[in-house]
User: Fold these one by one.
Assistant:
Number 1:
Amino acid sequence: MARITLDGIAHAYGPGPHGPKDYALQPLHHVWEHGLAYALLGPSGCGKTTLLNIISGLITPSEGRLLFDDRDVTRLPTEQRNIAQVFQFPVIYDTMTVAENLAFPLRNRKVPRETVAARVAEIAAMLDLTPYLNRRARGLTADAKQKISLGRGLVRADVSAVLFDEPLTVIDPALKWELRSKLKAVHRALDMLMIYVTHDQVEALTFADRVVVMNEGRAVQIGTPEQLFERPEHTFVGYFIGSPGMNLLPAEVSGTQARVGDAVLELGAAYPDLPSDRRTQIGIRPDFAMLAPSGGARVQVRRVDDLGRKRLAHVSLGGLAMIATVPDEMESVGAVASLALDPARILVYRDDVIVEGAPR
Ligand code: ATP
């Protein structure tokens, strides 16, 4: 078991990088703690696989050091890093039984027979594979095969970390939610450092204690799912996390007020006058912007979408489009409504980065 330190790790695939655009991964300092589950989350091409491959040893970073505890592993090959990996597609032996597949990483390392049997039984039970232990892997469904792959990744108790690269890709959508929560339970039970790459925010937020949100080669925020939701430090996180994402509206901010189009909103903190040559926006999650019959800011209602579990209203605030939530108790929504905004839920961004306000 280990703590992983990314000490200024960066990677450019081409020689002589000149600026941020030349890096697939921009310099990153962070310590990943033993026992926690991390997700690397971001859109295609943001650098998730590059970072995962640096940790697994498939790529030597062009800058920085990688430490497992105090050991510098930056230039060590994968075999010397003591990690387990689970890939998008099952990596198993078709001719072996499920039990033999699960036992393989342990037998390979000459673990005593009784320890192997006990660990295989434990992991199989966690993944609901017990009834299949004596069946050959050949002929099992793609879902079952991927569960065996997950089991093989989890079976060794002594690894520094388990790395998952989009492991639910081949899983039937109907079973995905089940396996997602199962993986979370497995993580709690096994007390291992796990790193999970995905572009699916639900997978990341369900599984991880800490999510590394990446965009264009940069880790824009590393935080708990709650921090990412409640206090995105960058507009990208506000927009990327949440369904729908955060409303981001151009604003003029002065003191404790924001002017949005021709509407004026009270803010939860006091801000210095922000220079007009910088782009200022306010961010409000649709979940925290509630329509109300009266009081609050006046909005024009363009459309209401009934999503079953919730209703979302597309409204115009001061002439700018945003999305608000229709509370359950509001049965009908007219063409004009009010928007109840908790000032503490309105965040201010300058050039996409959150601005700290002073207490009012
Ligand atoms: P995806 O979800 O599509 O796998 P990702 O977030 O994992 O994307 P990476 O595969 O790490 O992103 O790619 C990051 C950037 O590096 C992209 O611009 C990609 O085109 C580039 N890149 C990746 N591998 C190589 C390579 N072997 N040579 C050159 N450029 C590469």
Number 2:
Amino acid sequence: MNSDSTAFTTHVDREIASQPDIWRKVAAIAPSFAGLLPAHGERVAAVGCGSSWFMSMAYAGVREAAGHGETDYYAGSEFNYERKYDRIVAISRSGTTTEVVDLLAKTKLPSVVITAVAGSPVTDHATESIILDFADEESVVQTRWATAALGLLRAHNGVDLLPLADQAELALASDLGELPNVDQISFLGRGWTIGLANEAALKTREAAQFWAEAYPAMDYRHGPMSIAQKGRCTWAFGEIEKKLEEEIIATGALFEKSEWDPMVHLIRAQRVAVAIAKKRGLNPDQPRGLNRSVILS
Ligand code: F1P
């Protein structure tokens, strides 16, 4: 692929652009799944791998902040089988990711899986399944799947997705400015947006083999901020402390923040990841060394 060809349209471009419509569909069907998702007060563990892990992380923050109950999150490989939970919420687009399939097969706890593929192995082992097939993707890199799954869980925790879908149209049309030209990005979040920061960093690594990191905003001061400088970017999802913002700007780094809902702001990060990939002559649909699903032998 030619390194100056930035105009080609990939699956991930189309999938990013479909998010407003996907979120509207999720908003419409969310009430019908309410009975399958954790009830108020239940003790919950959210699990997944890769993007699905970061959406689990974000969901845990959303649910706790909404006051619906203790919610832990785990990478599929790191589940703590000694802990007692009322329900496991598993996220897996493919439904075939080994660590998630194995976890659901091993646990005796009630579970609900959110997957794009009906009849996939996770559905054989989970107590309940929620199939969001309309949010499945052609690209290996997840974008709309991740926000559809998180959107469903946010809707279940009282968030109205319809205004967010309208805001998403603005994020899709927004000018990326200098963002695709920076040589490093550190993504920051607080509470549930730490999951989004991790997801944004994963997008740039997968799609563009680009150096990105992610931190809880206040911990960024404890060392990682030393790499901030002109030509690099620090990106905040949601509100961060004013003093921290001033310190970041003083480093000369490009500072990115938004008034939009943080999940809407993630769309802009997805677009930046794709733009950087294209600038580098990479096909963002085909990350190096990654398949649609990681299946361990
Ligand atoms: C999880 C995952 C993704 C990654 C890639 C391969 O898949 O590891 O995070 O970006 O798409 O699969 P899944 O369990 O959600 O199918």
